Amino acid sequence: MAAIKPIRLMRGFFTVGFWTMGSRILGFVRDILIAAFLGAGPVAEAFLIAFSLPNMFRRFFAEGAFNTAFVPLFSKKVESGDDPHRFAQDAFSGLASILIVLTLLAQLVMPWLVLAMAGGFAGDERFQLAVDFGRIAFVYILFISLAALFSGILNAIGRFAAAAAAPILLNIILVSAMVWVSWSVPDGKMTTLVDPAETYGRALAWGVPIAGIAQLALVWVAAVRAGFPLRPRLPRLTPDMRKLAVIALPAMLAGGVVQVNLLVGRQVASFFDGAIAWLSYADRLYQLPLGVVGIAIGIVLLPDLSRRLRAGDEIGGRHAFSRAGELAMALTIPAAVALMVISVPLVSVLFERGAFSADDTANTALALTIYAIGLPAFVLQKVLQPIYFAREDTRSPFHYALVAMGVNVVVAVGLSFVFGFLGAAIATTLAAWVMVGLLSRGRRKFGDVAQFDNRFRSRIWRIIAASIAMALVLVGGELLLGPFFGATSLRYVALALLVSLGLLSYFGFARLFGAFRIGDLKGAMGRG
C-alpha cells in the first residue's frame, strides 16, 4: 500500500476533525446538562472522578501506549504485505487479556484508586459515591481500549470515518441517560429518599459502559468490512508481540503525559470544594480545538509518516510534517487567543443555569484562560510525537515526559498554597510547554524529515499577527455586546455574534497578512 498522498492526508485530517467536532459539540450538550442538573456539587465531582479513571487508563493502555506502538508496526506490515492480519489478531488477543485482568482488579481496589485520584474526598460523601460510580464506569476501559485498537487498524489503512465517528456514541448515550431521567422520573427522584443529583449520577455511570459496547461494535463492524475480522482467542507471545511490548512500555507514559498531569491537577483540586468540576468544565472547552486539530493531526500523521519512512520518502515526510504543523497552528493559535479573551461569556452562556452559579462561572473562566495559554503546546505535542513513534523511538518521549511530570508536580503542589486550585491549571500548561521544548530539541537527531520547512517558518509569525488582530476585534465586540449577555433570551445570540465576529476577523486578517490562502484549505479538502 502506498503512502497517503498529501491531499489525501489532509482529507483524512478533515474527516477526523469533522467527526471530532461533532463529538465535542455533543460533549458540550452533555456537560451543559451535567452542569444544570449537578452543578459543581459532590455528585458532579464524584462522577467526574469516576469517569476519569477509565479514561486515564485508556490513554495508557490504548491510545497512549498501545496504539503509538501498534500503529507504526502495523502500518509497516501493511506496506510490506507481511501478514498484517495475523499481527493484528495477536495484538487484539493480548490487549483483551490484559484489559480483562485490569478490569477485575480495579473492582477490588476501587477505593484506593479513588483516593489516588482525589485524596481530598477522604472522609466525606464524595468518596463512597465515587467508588460506586467508579466500579460501574471502569468497565468502559475494556470496550473502549479494544475499540481503539480497531480504530488504529482503520486509520492505518486510510479509513478514518468510522473510528472518528465512534466517540459521538458516548455523548449521545450520556445525554440520552440524563434526558430519560428528567422525563421519566418526577423531579429526578427514584424515591423520596434518593437525592435527585444522585439519580442523574447513577444514570451517567451506567451510560458509560453501555457507550463503550456501542463504540466497539461500530469499529468492529467497520474493521470486518475492511478485511480484518478479528476474533477473541488465547494470546500468543510471538516475536512481534515482544517487540510491540518493548516499544509500548515507555510509550505508556509518553503518550499519556497529559493525563498524568491532569491526574496531579485533580488530586490538588480535590482539596478545594467545587474545583474538580471547575477544572473539568474548563477542560471540556479547550478540548474542542485540541480534539479537532491535535488529535486529528496525530491520528492521520502517524500512519502516513510510518509508511513514508518505510519507503524512504523523507522529502514527502517532511512536507507532510510541515503542512500538518502549519494547519494545526493556523487553527489552534487563534482558538487559544479567543478562549483567553472571551472566557467569561463562553462559560456563562454555555454552563450558567440551574445548579451552576455565577461564582462557578468566574472560577471556570479563570481555569479556561490558563489552559488556553497551553493549548498550542498540547497540539504541538500531537504534531511532534509522531516523528518519534514513526522511527520506533518511544524512549526519548518517555524521558521528556518524566521531566514534564516533575515540573507539573512541583508547580501544582507549590502554587496551590498561593493560587489555590488554579495552581493545578498553571502547572498543566507549564508542563505542556516544557514537553514541547524537549520534543523540539530532540527531533534534530532525525534529520531534515523532522524539521519544519521555510514555508512553515514564514507563515507562523503571520498566523500570530492575525490572531492578535482578531483579539482586539473580540475585545471591542465583547464591550459592545456586553449588555446582551445579561439577558437570558439574547445571550445565545450575543455569543453567536461574538464568535462569528472572531472567525470572520481572523480569516480576514490571515488573508491580509498572508498567513494562509483559501486555496490551501480547498486543496486539503479536495479529492486526491
Q: What features would you describe in this structure?
A:
With 528 residues, the protein is an all-alpha fold. The chain has one domain (6-525). The protein is built from 19 helices and no strands. The longest helix has 36 residues, at 275-310.
Give the structure's gist in a few sentences:
The protein is mostly helical and 528 residues long.
Number of domains: 1
- Number of distinct helices: 19
Going by helix content, strand content and strand pairing, the class is mainly alpha
Largest β-sheet summary: none
Order of helices and strands: HHHHHHHHHHHHHHHHHHH
Average pLDDT, rounded to a whole number, is: 82
Global shape: globular
How far apart, in Å, are the first and last alpha carbons? 15 Å
Which parts are unreliable, with pLDDT below 50 for 5 consecutive residues or more?
1-5, 188-193, 522-528
Rg is: 23 Å
Q: Helical amount among residues, as a percent range?
A: over 70%
Strand content: under 5%
Count the beta strands: 0
